[in-house]
Each structure stands twice: as C-alpha cells, then as structure tokens.
C-alpha cells in the first residue's frame, strides 16, 4: 500500500495480506501511516536463492512466450517496472509503465511483459487512490497454440494474466495475486478473462497451471473490501498547505498488541520477528509446545492467557470442548516450560517421562538397525526438486552417503537405499529404520511412485513396521521444557560436547550450500565444490548420529539396553564366531557366521521376481524414450506414461488401507477409541462355537457394547477384521512388530442402540474355535483386483506389440487414454417446446452408429435427463441387434439404468427411425451379487454371464461392475458398446479394463458432481475418473467429443442460476416448465442462513436447531407441481444434507425429537440422483481453525453443486459466517473458498440467492 496526496493506493500484496494474516495488514497500514518502523530485512541466503531463481524463471517464461508467438509474427511489448512494487502511480517509472501498458493493450499486442495496471478509486470515494499492480505478463493468445483469443461479445482481444512463480505447485497467494490483475482488467473496461494462469517451475521451461477467473474474482472483491475497510480506519487523506501528506495518523490505527498468534504465513512475513518477540515478552500461550491455535483461543476465554497462567490453571478453567487428558497434557507442558525458562541461560532443557509405555514398546535394539536422514533441494531440476542425499548410519555408528545430482542419479540412490534396508531386514529380522518426523517416510513413498521402482519393497517395509518415527515416540512419552520438539531442541539432552557447530546447522542452510555447490560445479570450480559437498555430508551424518543417540537416550530413560550396547554384544558374538570358523578353515561356516547367505538379490539390487518383475519390464518398455516431464511429451508418449502408471494402479490403491491397518495394530486401544474407522468393543459376550448345517466351519455370534454409532459400524463393510489382543488365538494374521492378531472371517455387523452384533467363523481346516474375545473391529479389506490387474497387463502387452510394429492400437480404450475425440460435428440438440429429449437421443444414437472404435461422452448436469437419454439410446441400439454392456461404480447405479432400459423396452418407447426392420425385442441380464435377497428383478439373473451372453442371438444388454467385464470368458464375447454410467465417478483404469471388452464406449455422467475417490498416490494422473480424464481441465464436454445436456428439468431458474455459475460456466438453464411449480409462501432460489457458533468441527447443535426450524416452517405448505396438481408438503418432500456423519446423526436426532423423523438426512454421497422440492444444507464447521478435513472437502465445489442442485424450488444453506474468512493453504482450497464466497456474494446481490442473518441462538 502507498499513502499519496491523492489517497491510499493498494496492491496485490495487500490483498495477499488480507488472505494470509489480517494482523500483517494492520501492521503495514500503521507503518505506511508513519506510526511504525518497518523491521529490517534479515540476511537470508535461502530467500536470495528464491529471488535469483525467480528472476531466471521469469526470463525463461518470457523467452517461451516469444517463441510461442514468433511463427505468426506476434508482438511482445517489454516494459520496465519499478524496483518497488508498492510504489505510487505518480512515480515516473510507474507512470511511464502504465502509459506503455495502456498503449500496448489498445494496440492489441500478443504479450505485455511487466504490465502496469492502474485502477483509480470510484468517484466520491473518501479514500481516493485506487489499485496499482504489475503483472508479469498479460497474454491474448492461447498458451498452447499461440493463436489470438478473441472475446465473442466484442471481437476484441481477451487478455489474461500470467504470473511466473518458481514453485512447483500453485499457491493460494499467487493465485489471488494473478486474479487481482484479472479484476483490474475488468475494471479498466477489458473483456472478462476466462482464466488466470501461473507459469510454474517443476519442469524444464516451466508448466502452466490455470484456474477459472470466475472462481477467484469474488475473493478479490472480498479481500479488497477488507483492505479498504482497514484503510478507512485512518480517515481521509488530507494534503497539507504545500500539497504534501502529513506523516502522522490516527494512533488507533496501531494494532494493540503489536503481535499476533503464529500462523503458516509467518515463515515469509517481514513482521514475524516483531510478533515473535511480542509473544515471548508476553509469555503468550502460543509458546506452549504442541498447542493449537483453537486451543489457545479457548484457554484464553477461560482466563489462562500466559504460559505461567496455564501452568497453575485450575480444573474449572478447562474449556468444555477440550477433553480432560488434553487439558492436563497442555497444563503439564506449560508448567515444565515455566520451570525450564527460569533456569540460567545456556542450561539444557528439563525433561520428564510422562508415559513410559511407548518407550518400553520400542523394538528391541538390533545389530542391523539403521538411522536415516534425507536432504532435499526444492529448487533443483527446474524447480521440481531433488532428494540429493540419503544418509544411513548403522548401529555401530558407520555412516554411508548416497548422493544424487540429477533425476537419474536420484533413482539409483533411492534404489540403493531401499536395497540396503531390505537386505538388512533379511539378514537381521529384528532390524528397524529410525528417523525423526515424517519426511523420510513421505519421501520414500514419493520416490517409489515417481520412479516406479521398489514400490513392493517400500510397501513391505511399511507393512512390517520397519520404519520407526522417533518424533512420535518422543511426543507420546517424554515432556521437554522447549517450545518445540524439533530434534535440534532435544540435542542438548544427549549430544553433550558434540553439539553442532558447523556452518551448516539447519535444513535451510543445507539447501543454500547445495545450491552453492551446483553453482561452483557449473563454473568449473570442482575443488571448491567438493569442500561444500563435504560440509553438507557432515551435516547429514550429524543428523543420522543425532537420531542414533536419541534412540539410545530414549531406551536409557527406562533402563533398557541401548542400541550401542546391543551392537557391541552382537559384534563380540560375530568376532567369536568368525574366529572359531577361521580356526576350522570352513568357508561355508564363515559365510553363515557373517550372514551373507541372507543378502541376495538380482543384478540390479532387487530381490523381487515373479509378477513384479513382469510389471517392471512392461513399465520400462512403455517408458523407454518418454520424457519425465509431461510438458515435453507428445500425446502418444503421454498415453504410454499413463498406461505404464496403470499397471500399478490397483496395488497402489490398496496400499494405504494396509498401511493404516498395520499402524492400527500397533496403536494402543485407548487411542483407537478416537479413530472413526475403528469400532472398539467394550463389554463382549459370545455364544458357543457351533457348526451349522451344511457349513464347513464353526461359527459363533459376538455381541458387544460400543460407543461407536450406526454409521461407524456400517462403514466397516461386509467382512470386517476382528482384532484380538496378545497372545492372539491360533490362525490369526500377525504383523512383524505387533502381537495383536486379526482375521476377516466376520459377517456384516449390525448396530442397535449401542450394541453391535456379528458372526465370526473359524478357518476351513483350522482350529476348533477359541475362548478369547475380540477387542475391536477394523474395516473390511478392499476387494481383490487380480483379475483387473491381469487385464491391464494384457492391454500393456497388446499396446507394446502394436507400437513395436510402428502402429497405434486401434481400440476405443486406447483412444480414451489419448483423449482422442471422435470428431463429432453437431449443433446443440433442439428438443423443441415439449423438450422430450427425442432429438438428443437421436443425435447420440446416430453418432454411435457412425462411430468406429471411439469414445463418445454425454455430460448430464443435475436434472438434465442423463438417465432418460442413456436408457433410450441403449434400447434403440439393442433393438438393432447390438450387444451392449452397462457398467458403473456400484450395483445400484447399474440397476437403476437397467430398470429404465427395461421400462423403455416394455413400453415400446425406443424410437429408431433409421432402422430398416421392425424393432426386435432384446434381452437384459445382470448377475446376482452377494447379499441380494430379492425373489425377482426386471432382468434375468444368469448364474454364468458368459454362457448367457454366448446364447444370445439378437440384441442384448448385460449389466455389471468392472469385475464382470474383466472376466476372460466375458471379454472373449463380442460387445458392440460399453456404456459407463456415472462416468464422472468411474475410475479411468476401470474404464480401460471394462472398455477394452467392447468396440465402442459411451460415457454418461458429469465430472462437475461427485468426483472419483482415490486412495493411492500415482506417478501419473490415472487417479481421476474416465470422464474427467476425457475433458481434461474443461468444465464442459467439447462438441467434438460428445453432447452436453444443458437444460435442467429439476431446478427452478433461481436455483439453477447459482449452480450454473458455480460449475457450468453459466450455460445450464432451467426448462420453462420448472416455473409452473409453486411452493406456498416460499420464494424460489438459494436462501442463505448465517448462524454464529464457535469450536464446532463436525457437528453443530446451533445449526441443527435452525434446520429443525426451517423444516418445520415448510411442512404442510401447499406444493403445486408443473401439471397443476397441489398437495401439502410432506416429510418426504424435504432433504437435509450435511458434510459429516456426526452432523447427520445430530440432525436426525433433532428432527426426530421435533416429530420430523420421516425427513431424509444424509451426506451428499447418499443423495446424488435424488431431488425434492426443498433441500436444507448444514455446513456444521465453525471456522477455519475447526476444519477437520481441510477446506477442499468442506467447501468442495462438486459437493456444494450436488447439495444445492437436489432442490426443485428452494435450497437453504445454513452456515457459520466465519467460513468466508478461512485461510486456505492450497490452491484447490482457495478455488473452493472462492466458489463458496461467490455463492454468498450473489446472496448479497440477488441473482437467485437470498441471505438471512440469524442470531447466535438460532
């Protein structure tokens, strides 16, 4: 910001401050008002590196843009921007830059570099001034083709801002900054940008990340209002007699106190030292190690405002929402810190063991133990980052460094480290790998996925619990009088005189030094570079040694044998054994003594053969010659990379489940009581073991009380794992480092009023039962995917055979991978005034008849008749004799579509004017799934679908899941078409598996509603739905790829308009007949209800009370449908939606208590495809500090779309007003917040949304 004679000018930096920290905004205002001195900028080598690399990255982006427009002689205007980006518009350089920018935009050039955007304040604004910002680039060409982009309404060039950021991923502040430039363009009268762009690092030449401007412009308006409100506190700017501005200002502008709570943005804030000093001087609660911001706020409200106050706080000061163990833990931590801070300067921190159980549960020290630390450089490799050093120290103190100075070496080093770990585990079954904090584990997983190597080995290390995080052990067992539990704060307790004193003391220092090494190497100063590298090696070796000594210190706290002592004993035993063998001169005995027999592997260091070796070979062949960076690939190479990643898709999806499963086996039972995925059994009763008639195993019924709810039990699945404490009965599955046992021979559990009941069985041919009882139930394992994995292997082999022959596969599944559209040429279907959809059905049918081995998409937003169109297309083609498969993510979705197909067939509604012969009756079938107790269905249920399919002589329709179409005997039958319903939720790899069984593929769905759920981490974007993959970043299906159903029959126009703006670029419209409906006394549209509450995470009684009031207010009113039929609104006419199961349970109870138990309540997942005249949505969470799963989940545009679009007439959105002040930490979160704020701001401005402010009491 800048205070001038003309008033206050603000910049994107001020908007970013409003986003990240309102206190920083107030400090900046005070400084620019002359009330505060800005703190000096500290010398920081890492920040200098960022600036240096950032300038180089911007120059690379400029060169790339010049090359992009050069073939058509495009113009690039380069402008010199001021050094100070917060200068005023009267600055000569800024004034010249602004004039040059205006001239360039008027001349309609292709690219403007360092564009100066000056937006004066509105007339009559007492603040005067306005907005001034300098955009890296304003671009009016397509960033892929270089062709000019014109605004359809005006015919003028449409400029969009592009900012160069070295980061590998888009950050919220960067997106907001770029959106501010888009907002300035609009204010200056230019066409509204469709997108804003970031030119990111992470690949040679950079890569572009784009977001819809419409999702971010509401945030620019929101934060601009906050900035202007802050500036308004100083009153209008009044120049003095000579025209200059007085330096003084209203002292009330000065924040009181000058410091604020720490937050993520402190790391890059120039005012951070001011706040840090202020917190220390005030002895603020935030100094207590391990305390959260929300806990600070709650304790302050109870009178505990300092470390010392919390240390002596009484039990009556415990906040009601804080558990007693949490309060006692924080109080004890504060008390220890208060004592420690009173010690003489330089004293080591105090410590106390508050729970020795985690220390006693540490694995026994082993001669094969390793201590592991990684160094990484986020700036290396074009900003993509490089894990350049893996350090390993053995139990004997020996250190080994594995270096990597490029991507290929990174793979080699990673493989060497994993092979060292697996070899040590083979030679020493009791070994473990110790590290401090989660970085090493996370990096191992990321490297395995990035390089698609050693995935099975890393998975095995994690499943066996080989990696031990000593940070978690420290936090759960030892209390230290330090303000944090970083390992450097603990080292005075055990490093003694060996405390680090080198130039490289922190991870940030190591990054600076490694960049220095790279610069010296590039200039040929290899001797100097080697010195720098040796210093980094010493730093890493120290970290590993520190971890080893910490391990010994933790063991010694409870009198256990240390790792060093264990290694000494093992070394002595080895020496004695070797001496004895040497005396006998027996070389085989000598090999056995030193353990080399157990360390075997293949030539490349891997010890894995069989299926994994086959997969590795296929992956290697597919990726041969494929650039690592996606931006450098051709479409063909990208398809090869996707197929290579698909080979490991299913195992990767399963791994997180098993990692969590084995982590839970190692977790104490009292901690599992707080795990929503676990049902802890309290009082357990069991029946006698019996063998039912015709059963092969013994069975018994288990009945237990539990504090878990019905939803928790339901989420366990149909075959949960029963968990037994040690010693586990015979026949249980055990993990390497837990004595607990489990088995999955359990029936589907049932819950009734706090009691869970299930049946468990013995193994076939196993023991005759056991007397022990289970203590908990863990979730069911994921379904087996071996059949689908085999299909992907076949697809890879088939693709390689074609590619090796110089051809591409001529298959629909391959075209899906390539995103190759069938090249449809059609105008939007005109279904006439009646809107019966006949033209759309005919168009899609015709397109499929004319298609080769292609993929056609039909995108159906809420209420647009996707199922109507799909069922009639299927019926029309089946009547022609086509053999059609219908697949979806769930049996319910498949059966819903089959029911409609059968109804169309039986009613004779399938119209095919182009058919030469009279329509023939076709058959419909779907195999019976487990648990289906229905006596009859509208379709056949053959015991063998392959035999049924082979017996069909005419048209037929076969429904099933992806497992159905992965069966070889089904795949060998010819299918003309596979229809994927809800393709926006159907995994891409599942679509490849099922789609490869058919000649053509029809995708029905909407990727703008609920997305595909993915659990694993993958090296390529195979974790998306089939339809999302086909559309890429687009919101709407392009005409050449398929059909968009753009008229909703469900939503009134005033409900439709906010939904259309939210997700469908404003093209979704309501059918005129929706206006013929009416709900007595209720305006149509989206109604906003703000309810104040605090400290609510996943359930809010305040919102529940308001929901009950809203439901009660609509029941009994007269509802008139589009045909004029009138009736009272019943409980079945209202849907209540909440994001969390706990809020769902609370709402059900509250509604039942009010006599509205017939109102359906659920999460959005339960209501997709449903509709009702009235929908009430409860957000439940109080604020950003209370988010349980991140803003990306709570404010998900997809989930909000589904929730609001269930409403035919009125949707009520009940929420806390603090939700609009959330500070996202990811770009995805910022976009979600922007879309949500957009809905709220439309409420203030009409456009189908009404706002109702509620008092805290509802």
Automatic annotation (TrEMBL):
Transmembrane segments: none annotated. It comes from the Bacteria. Residues 1034-1208 form the DNA2/NAM7 helicase-like C-terminal domain. GO terms for molecular function: 5'-3' DNA helicase activity; ATP binding; hydrolase activity. Residues 370-554 form the YprB ribonuclease H-like domain. Keywords: ATP-binding, Helicase, Hydrolase, Nucleotide-binding. The keyword Amino-acid biosynthesis does not apply. InterPro entries: Coronavir_polyprotein_1ab, DNA2/NAM7-like_C, P-loop_NTPase, RecB_nuclease_TM0106_put, SF1_C_Upf1, YprB_RNase_H-like_dom. The keyword Hydrolase applies. This is TM0106 family RecB-like putative nuclease.
């Amino acid at each position: 910001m800048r205070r001038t004679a003309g008033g206050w000018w603000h910049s994107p930096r001020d908007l970013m401050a409003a986003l990240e920290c309102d206190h920083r905004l107030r400090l900046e205002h005070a400084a620019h008002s002359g009330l505060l001195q800005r703190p000096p900028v500290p010398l920081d080598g890492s920040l200098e590196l960022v600036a240096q690399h950032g300038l180089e990255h911007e120059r690379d982006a400029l060169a790339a843009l010049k090359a992009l427009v050069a073939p058509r002689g495009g113009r690039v205007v380069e402008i010199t921007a001021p050094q100070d980006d917060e200068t005023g518009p009267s600055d000569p350089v800024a004034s010249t830059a602004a004039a040059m920018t205006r001239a360039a935009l008027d001349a309609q050039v292709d690219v403007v570099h360092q564009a100066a955007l000056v937006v004066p304040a509105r007339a009559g604004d007492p603040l005067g001034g306005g907005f001034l910002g300098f955009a890296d680039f304003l671009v009016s060409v397509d960033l892929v083709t270089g062709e000019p982009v014109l605004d359809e309404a005006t015919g003028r060039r449409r400029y969009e801002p592009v900012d160069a950021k070295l980061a590998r991923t888009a950050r919220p502040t960067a997106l907001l900054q770029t959106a501010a430039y888009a907002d300035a363009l609009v204010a200056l009268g230019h066409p509204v940008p469709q997108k804003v762009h970031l030119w990111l690092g992470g690949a040679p030449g950079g890569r572009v990340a784009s977001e819809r401007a419409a999702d971010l412009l509401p945030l620019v308006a929101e934060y601009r209002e906050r900035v202007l409100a802050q500036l308004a506190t100083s009153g209008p700017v009044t120049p003095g007699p000579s025209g200059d501005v007085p330096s003084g200002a209203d002292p009330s502008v000065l924040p009181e106190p000058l410091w604020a709570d720490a937050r993520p943005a402190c790391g890059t804030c120039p005012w951070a030292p001011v706040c840090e000093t202020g917190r220390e001087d005030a002895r603020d609660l935030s100094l207590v190690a391990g305390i959260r911001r929300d806990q600070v706020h709650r304790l302050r409200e109870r009178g505990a405002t300092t470390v010392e106050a919390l240390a002596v706080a009484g039990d009556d000061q415990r906040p009601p929402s804080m558990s007693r163990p949490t309060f006692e833990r924080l109080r004890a931590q504060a008390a220890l810190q208060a004592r420690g801070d009173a010690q003489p300067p330089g004293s080591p921190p105090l410590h106390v063991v508050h729970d020795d159980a985690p220390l006693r549960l540490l694995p026994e020290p082993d001669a094969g133990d390793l201590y592991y630390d990684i160094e990484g450089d986020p700036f290396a490799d074009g900003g993509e980052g490089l894990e350049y050093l893996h350090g390993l120290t053995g139990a004997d103190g020996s250190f080994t460094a594995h270096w990597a100075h490029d991507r290929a070496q990174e793979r080699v080093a990673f493989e060497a480290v994993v092979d060292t770990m697996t070899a040590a585990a083979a030679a020493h079954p009791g070994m473990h790998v110790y590290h401090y904090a989660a970085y090493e584990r996370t990096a191992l997983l990321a490297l395995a996925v990035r390089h698609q190597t050693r995935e099975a080995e890393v998975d095995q290390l994690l499943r066996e619990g080989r990696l031990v995080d000593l940070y978690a052990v420290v936090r759960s067992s030892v209390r230290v009088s330090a303000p944090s539990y970083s390992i450097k704060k603990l080292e005075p307790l055990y490093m003694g005189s060996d405390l680090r004193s080198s130039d490289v003391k922190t991870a940030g220092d190591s990054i600076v030094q490694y960049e220095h090494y790279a610069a010296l190497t590039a200039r040929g100063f290899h001797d100097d570079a080697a010195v720098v590298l040796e210093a980094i090696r010493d730093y890493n070796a120290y970290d590993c040694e520190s971890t080893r000594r910490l391990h010994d210190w933790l063991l010694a706290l409870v009198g256990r044998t240390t790792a060093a002592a264990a290694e000494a004993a093992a070394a002595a035993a080895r020496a004695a054994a070797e001496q004895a063998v040497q005396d006998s001169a027996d070389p085989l005995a000598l090999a056995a003594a030193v353990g080399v027999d157990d360390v075997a592997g293949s030539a490349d260091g891997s010890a894995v053969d069989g299926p994994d070796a086959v997969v590795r070979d296929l992956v290697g062949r597919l990726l041969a010659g494929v650039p690592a960076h996606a931006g450098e690939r051709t479409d063909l190479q990208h398809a090869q990379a996707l197929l290579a990643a698909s080979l490991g898709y299913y195992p990767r999806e399963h791994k997180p489940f098993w990692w969590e499963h084995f982590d839970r086996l190692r977790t104490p039972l009292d901690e599992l009581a707080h795990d929503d995925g676990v049902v802890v059994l309290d009082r357990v009763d069991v029946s006698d073991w019996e063998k039912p008639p015709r059963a092969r195993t013994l069975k018994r019924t288990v009945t237990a009380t539990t504090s878990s709810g019905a939803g928790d039990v339901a989420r366990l699945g149909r075959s949960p794992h029963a968990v037994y404490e040690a010693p586990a009965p015979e026949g249980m599955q055990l993990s390497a480092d837990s004595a607990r046992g489990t088995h999955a021979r359990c029936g589907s559990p049932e819950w009734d009023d706090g009691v869970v009941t299930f049946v468990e069985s013995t193994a076939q041919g196993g023991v005759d039962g056991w007397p022990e009882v289970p203590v908990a139930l863990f979730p069911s394992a994921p379904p087996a995917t071996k059949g689908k994995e085999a299909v992907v292997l076949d697809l890879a082999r088939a693709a390689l055979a074609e590619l090796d022959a110089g051809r591409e596969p001529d298959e629909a599944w391959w075209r899906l991978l390539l995103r190759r559209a069938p090249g449809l040429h059609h105008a939007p279907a005109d279904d006439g005034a009646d809107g019966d959809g006949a033209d759309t059905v005919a168009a899609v049918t015709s397109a499929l008849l004319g298609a080769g081995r292609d993929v056609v998409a039909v995108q159906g937003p809420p209420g647009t008749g996707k199922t109507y169109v799909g069922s009639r297309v299927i019926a029309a083609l089946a009547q022609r004799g086509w053999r059609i498969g219908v697949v979806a993510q769930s049996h319910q979705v498949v059966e819903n579509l089959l029911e409609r197909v059968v109804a169309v067939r039986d009613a004779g509604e399938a119209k095919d004017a182009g058919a030469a012969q009279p329509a023939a009756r076709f058959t419909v079938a779907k195999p019976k799934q487990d648990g289906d107790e229905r006596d009859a269905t509208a379709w056949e249920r053959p015991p063998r679908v392959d035999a049924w399919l082979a017996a069909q002589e005419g048209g037929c329709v076969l429904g099933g899941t992806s497992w159905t179409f992965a069966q070889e005997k089904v795949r060998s039958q010819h299918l003309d078409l596979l229809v994927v319903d809800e393709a926006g939720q159907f995994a891409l790899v599942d679509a490849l598996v099922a789609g490869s069984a058919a000649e053509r593929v029809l995708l029905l769905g909407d990727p703008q509603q609920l997305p595909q759920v993915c659990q694993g981490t993958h090296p390529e974007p195979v974790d998306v739905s089939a339809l999302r993959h086909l559309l890429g970043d687009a919101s709407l299906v392009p005409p050449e790829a398929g059909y968009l159903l753009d008229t909703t029959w469900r939503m009134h126009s005033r409900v439709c308009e906010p939904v259309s703006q939210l997700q469908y670029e404003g093209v979704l419209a309501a059918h005129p007949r929706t206006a013929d409906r009416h709900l007595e006394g209720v305006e149509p549209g989206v109604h906003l209800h703000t309810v104040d509450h605090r400290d609510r995470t996943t359930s809010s009684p305040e919102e529940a009370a308001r929901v009950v009031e809203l439901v009660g207010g609509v029941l009994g009113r007269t509802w008139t449908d589009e045909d004029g039929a009138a009736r009272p609104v019943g409980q079945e006419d209202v849907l209540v939606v909440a994001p969390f199961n706990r809020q769902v349970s609370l709402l059900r109870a509250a509604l039942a208590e009010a006599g509205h138990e017939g109102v359906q309540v659920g999460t959005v997942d339960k209501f997709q495809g449903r509709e009702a005249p009235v929908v009430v949505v409860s957000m439940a969470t109080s604020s950003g500090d209370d988010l349980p799963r991140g803003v990306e989940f709570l404010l998900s545009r997809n989930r909000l779309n589904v929730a609001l679009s269930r409403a035919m007439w009125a949707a009520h959105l009940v929420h806390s007003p603090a939700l609009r002040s959330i500070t996202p930490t990811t770009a995805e979160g910022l976009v979600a917040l922007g879309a949500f704020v957009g809905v709220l701001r439309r409420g203030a401005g009409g456009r189908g949304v009404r706002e109702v402010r509620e008092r805290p009491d509802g």
